[in-house]
Amino acid sequence: MMPNGCEFMGKDGLGQGRYENWCMADTKRGCPRDAVRICLVALWVIGLICGCTGEVVEIPVKEAVTLPPSEPAVFYDTEPETETESESESESAHRGVLVGEKKNLLTDTQMEAVFNYMDRYYEALASLEMKELADLFSGSAGGQVAFHENAWEYMIEMRRMQASDLRLDDYFYRLWILEAEVQADGSVNVDIAEQSLLRFQMMPEVTSIYPGYWHDFVLVKEDGKWLLSEHMQWEGAFWNMLKGYQGQDLEEMDDPARVFADRREKLLGQVEDDLEKRGRQHAAAGKSESFQQVPGHEYDREAAVAYARAHVDERSDEWHDYSGEGGNCQNFVSQCLLAGGIPMDIEGSAKWKWYGEALDNTSGRTGCTLSWINVDYFYAYARDNSGYGLTAQVDADYTSGQTGDLIMMGTPEDWNHMVVISEVVKNAEGETIDYMICSNTTDVQDFPASAYPSPRRSLIRILGWN
């Protein structure tokens, strides 16, 4: 999720998927490219304010841009479903394909610069080994190179630190050109949407789906070859790396290599601290005999997960979508719990309800509580509720999760994302080593929890309801 309500760039919110869609759709109707960036940064900051802190800022909801309709993307070892798709994929020298009505806005050599970046990026994630980056960028883009090198290294090292094997067994990506503009200096600004399908070594039979996130590329021609002079990947690791420097020209920064190396080491230190904390928590849980009250009604985990998978990318028309207002992750999770039989709760001091968009903490069947749409407030509800409604265990032993349970993610500074466990990953000894999860903003389906860029996470066990 990007700003919060969720995760992504700070507070789940602006993240990939609909929030990026929403912002780009709005700004590009009449704003220059710099205004687009300013808008994205401003909305990210608003998300940080409203998503997790509980202060809700009203942002007009714009018409969302969705990915163009097309046949489902397939892996190379899968029989293509249409002749068109077969031709485009068989002719590609890359592990991805360019599709859509605007695919001819770039020349083949310009598009090759984009494909070269995408291929190198996925090669690094597939092997969890750093790849050369400088040759993809122009000679004057040293700040960009430093930023990307450290963002990639953070993702690689973070994934190598986990118990599960997060190398990619296979991957496929599909790109849509949203807009391409030639500038006076001859450079080309390109906005691209990506849909990716991934298979991880730890569970290669499961396909992880990234329905859509965005890239901003600036291409320049140098010595007869098209290269990148700028790039932003609207994905959590990049925003974690950029935190505190949003909107700055990386080429004008003092010593960007040192700045981003320091940021990378700080994030990796947070990952290590969190892993150690979870290890101590697991050891303590094994020594204690904690008694938990059995709730009067069971939680339908299968129904909750089925709802989650059905609404990762396709929002339900029955609910407001908060993707452009701080993030939709907690709203999505609350809907999953409701689908699993957990009833809305308007009794007592701890409440959890959604009857409409207006904030309302009363016992009436009107409006919604912050606990329905905000990560921190939901955590407080799950922790404090007694009597009627949800029964849960917060900060539970991280390895004790089941399908339908929740994982809260963030940084040491704040929690900003909530996801639903869709599958439990075990090793040969039967020990839980990871989870597949579903979430909104960032939209992912059956994606490894440990591959998420957030350095901090905590398990909320859903026991049932009374």
Give a verbal description of the structure:
- By secondary structure, the protein is an alpha+beta fold.
- It is 32% helix and 22% strand.
- It is built from 11 helices and 11 strands.
- It has helices at 18-27, 33-50, 83-91, 108-127, 142-160, 236-242, 256-287, 301-310, 329-339, 370-373, 375-384; strands spanning 96-99, 168-182, 188-200, 208-222, 225-233, 390-396, 406-410, 415-426, 432-439, 444-448, 456-465.
- A hairpin with a 5-residue loop joins strand 2 and strand 3.
- Residues 1-91 have low confidence and may be disordered.
What is the 3D form? globular
* Discrete helix count: 11
Question: What's the alpha carbon Rg, rounded to whole Å?
Answer: 22 Å
Give helix and strand order, one letter per element, not per position: HHHEHHEEEEHHHHHHEEEEEE
By DSSP, the count of extended strands is 11
Rounded mean pLDDT score: 83
Quick one: biggest sheet? Answer: 6 strands, antiparallel
- What distance lies between the first and last C-alpha atoms, to the nearest angstrom? 30 Å
Unreliable segments of 5+ consecutive residues: 1-91
**Class inferred from helices and paired strands:** alpha+beta
Beta-strand percentage range: 15-25%
For the largest beta sheet, what order do the strands appear in spatially? 6-11-7-8-9-10
